[in-house]
Amino acid sequence: MKNKIVYFVTIVLALLYLASGHYFATQGLSFFKEKASTNVIEARVLKLLPAETGAKFQQIRFEAELLSGSQQGAKVTAIQNKSGSFAAGRDVAAGDKVLLLPDQKGHGAWSYAEHLRSNVLMWLFAVFALSIIAFGRMQGVNTLISLIFCCLSIFAVFVPAIISGKNVYCWTILTCAFIIVTNLLLVNGINRKTIATILGCIGGLVIAALISVAADSFLQLTGLVDEDSMYLLFLNPADPIDLKAIVFSAIIIGALGAIMDVAMDIASALNELAATSTAPTRKMLLQAGNNIGRDILGMMSNTLILAYIGGSLTIVLLFFAYNHSLLYLLNKEMVVVEILQAVIGSFGILFTIPFTSFICSRLYVKKTRRRYKSGLENKI
């Protein structure tokens, strides 16, 4: 009954946070709302048409049937421009589902925007969700709910708050705290294992945050790591986004998942050890947690580094191809930020291990000793 009450209260409070957080985060987004959104229409390519003579750019003309919008079912002529740009997309073919931009100038020709891929992604997510539920049952349902809350906290609260000019550091900390508490309470309920995991995560994140702030002052970072960062500056010239704070946020949120994973692994393992041992001691649990953590540390550090390298592999290849100086490469801010994310994330994992082990040794032993003593009294 206690876990059911906590479960219900957690969901209610999470929904209240998301609703109120979204309302507060979107205050000040008037400049963003004034910009017209891109209106795209789903369509299916029926057949390719001969190219127009005298076209300025290489074009692919095709006939398509509209699948959405007020003109659904209508057949239109559309053009895919092949002007040599890498962003032109894959050539359309008969049977493809694409997104079209309506004709704005009255010429009667629609423009190709992109291939329709979101439907495939939705099916893939549906299969993923059903697989989690089939394997985890009620635990799988809780996992999906926590995942949805996690995504909503980032895309419905955190991102609008940053775009509207709110303090990036405060909203990063608030978002991480929400994800940690909500995820663990929904998946594991309220117990000593959950409390130990939450406290261990907080300890690791605090260390990662302090190191990130210190590294920023020593490395003279600007936050201009790529052209996308420059675009952020022009969203609201009157109150530009703090790009160095964005780097801080990327480091902390990027490390959050790995830190939660490590804290839960140690808390769960020590909980089983305390439950199955006859008379566990704090020293025994602390040593066991540190030993388990040493085995986890190497793999999780590799996971972080490989994840960041994989995410920026194209950039790394370009730098190696066009700049033969390794010294220049290692001092490029874009590369430095990627290295910082992996290193600071590994620091967070490193300190999460002893924090979680220490907390578990304090929480688990009291409970087990009580049970052990009551068992001895019953035998006597």
Q: Topology of this protein?
A:
Blueprint: H1 2-25, H2 30-33, E1 41-49, E2 58-66, E3 75-82, E4 97-101, E5 109-115, H3 118-136, H4 138-163, H5 168-188, H6 192-219, H7 227-233, H8 243-276, H9 282-311, H10 313-322, H11 326-331, H12 333-379
Parallel strand pairs: 3-5
Antiparallel strand pairs: 1-2, 1-4, 2-3, 4-5
Helix pairs in contact: 1-4, 1-5, 3-4, 4-5, 5-6, 5-8, 6-8, 6-12, 8-9, 8-12, 9-12
Write a structural description.
This protein has 380 residues and is of the alpha+beta class. Among the domains are: 61 residues, Beta Barrel (OB fold (Dihydrolipoamide Acetyltransferase, E2P)); 189 residues, no CATH class. It is 67% helix and 10% strand. The chain has twelve helices and five strands. It has a five-stranded mixed barrel with strand order 1-2-3-5-4. Strand 1 and strand 2 form a beta hairpin. It is globular, with a radius of gyration of 27 Å. It starts with a helix and ends with a helix.
Overall body shape = globular
Biggest pleated sheet: 5 strands, mixed, barrel
Rg is 27 Å
Provide a count of the helices.
Answer: 12
C-alpha end-to-end distance: 33 Å
Order of helices and strands: HHEEEEEHHHHHHHHHH
Point out poorly predicted stretches.
367-380
Number of E-state strands:
5
Q: Taking all residues together, what is the mean pLDDT?
A: 82
Q: Into which percent range does the helicity of residues fall?
A: 55-70%
Share of β-strand residues: 5-15%
Biggest sheet strand order reads: 1-2-3-5-4
**What structural class do you assign from the helix and strand content?**
alpha+beta
